[in-house]
Amino acid sequence: MNEDTLKEFKCFLRERYGRKNTVITYYDGISNFARYIQKPLNTVTKEELVNWKQQLQDIKKQNTVRAYCYSVN
Q: Which GO molecular-function terms appear in the entry (predicted)?
């Protein structure tokens, strides 16, 4: 299910933003989250999002964390 959702999201990003780097960054963010959560994206809780963000802050730069979180919201 997440694969189909990710494909749809990538198409949405291309239509909405068009810029290659923006599409790549936002797609990387949601893909990272999907790998982390390993369950249908429409069942995610706020607590799971917070835990993911905390984990990201340990390994990614602040701007990357911000962009990834924006892509998931």
A: DNA binding
